[in-house]
Specification:
alpha+beta, 3 domains, 7-stranded antiparallel beta sheet
Length: 365
């Protein structure tokens, strides 16, 4: 087939897939059940998810059996992987009221049809440049070296021979039949023995990494392959690697993947710091309530000793409050201003700043 014909087939297939999905029959959506949720503040909601998610790209919030909230109505402010808690903001008081009154079940669904649209758009623009190879490789039998620890079957030998002597080949086999650790690894090493570069491409990140793990395992088990290939220098994982792969093979991943992982970890650290901050503010909340009581009592008639005892209690509470506030740059000015001389005036302002606001992270377990 010519590149133009391949492009036409792909564009038609993409359209059929998108039409199929729009009819509600396609597998484009992935759903994650919301185990529990809590309304916090005027329009914030904390969603405790059944399983972890990578990001909120293409996410829709399904409320009950009929209501679907897209990005125009709901936005996601943060996600904590440790507790699988997703923070969301719903800009519709009516929906918030309905959730509070009816407590419907929820799911977060991810519309993956954007992946098909991205591929369609790419082929629309560049499809005429994509076609079958022009030349046919030629590898004689003596150039085909199987991993030392394996004894290939006739079918595996035939598969490798076909790959290395065809413009395009398709290998099918059930799981565990050696497609990766026998057939693919042998074919790759044959090309590398000739000084060629090999690109391993798969439809998903997990698929790419599954193949890479298999190939790396074969290379590590064969002394001859190890002499030929130094994974740290000769293999590069291009694109967005999964967190686990970056942790297992950081030297294979391009800087973008590591930078993304670092950025994600920094966001998690920032979130944890915010949660700790909210916990600390909860601790001093009782101190503020005690100060309010003491402020009223101090205005009432009392002897000197009672007044002195109340002043001592006030000073002690203010000291404990300041110890927390001084550690927080956002509220360090409150620590400076809150003294026993003017605390009644500052108390009202401090209470408003600290507590009369949405505090969704305060409820994360």
């Amino acid at each position: 087939m010519k590149p133009e014909e391949i492009r036409e087939v792909f564009m038609r297939s993409a359209k059929d897939l998108l039409d199929y999905d729009e009819e509600g029959r396609g597998p484009a959506n992935v759903a994650v059940r919301v185990e529990s949720y809590e309304l916090v503040g005027k329009n914030s909601i904390l969603l405790s998810l059944e399983e972890n998610i990578d990001d909120t790209l293409g996410a829709y919030l399904y409320v009950g059996d009929f209501l679907v909230l897209d990005k125009d109505v709901v936005s996601y402010s943060f996600y904590d992987r440790n507790t699988k808690t997703l923070g969301a903001t719903i800009d519709n008081p009516g929906i918030i009221g309905m959730i509070a009154a009816e407590h419907p079940e929820m799911t977060v669904e991810f519309d993956l049809s954007f992946l098909i649209k991205n591929a369609r758009d790419y082929y629309d623009e560049h499809g005429t440049l994509i076609g079958y190879p022009d030349t046919c490789p030629c590898f004689p039998e003596e150039d085909i070296v199987f991993p030392a620890k394996f004894s290939p079957s006739d079918q595996q030998r035939n598969a490798v021979r076909t790959i290395l002597n065809s413009k395009l080949s398709y290998v099918w086999g059930a799981p565990g039949t050696g497609k990766t650790q026998m057939v693919l690894a042998t074919a790759i090493m044959a090309y590398m023995r000739r000084g060629k570069r090999v690109a391993i491409i798969a439809p998903t990140n997990n698929s790419v990494e599954q193949v890479l793990r298999g190939v790396l395992g074969v290379i590590g088990s064969d002394e001859g392959f190890r002499r030929m290939v130094d994974p740290a220098k000769d293999i590069a994982r291009i694109g967005t690697a999964t967190e686990q792969f970056v942790e297992d093979y950081p030297y294979l991943c391009e800087g973008q993947s590591i930078s993304m992982l670092i950025s994600k970890r920094r966001k998690e650290i920032k979130l944890l710091k915010e949660i700790i901050q909210e916990r600390e503010l909860d601790v001093i909340a009782s101190h503020f309530r005690a100060l309010e009581v003491l402020a009223k009592e101090r205005k009432q008639p009392a002897d000197r000793k009672a007044k002195r005892d109340m002043d001592n209690q006030i000073d002690q509470l203010i000291s404990e409050i300041n110890a927390v506030l001084e550690e927080n740059s956002l509220y360090s000015d409150l620590a400076r201003d809150l003294t026993s001389m003017n605390f009644e005036h500052q108390l009202e302002a401090a209470t408003q700043r600290l507590y009369q606001r949405d505090r969704p992270k305060n409820s994360i377990p």
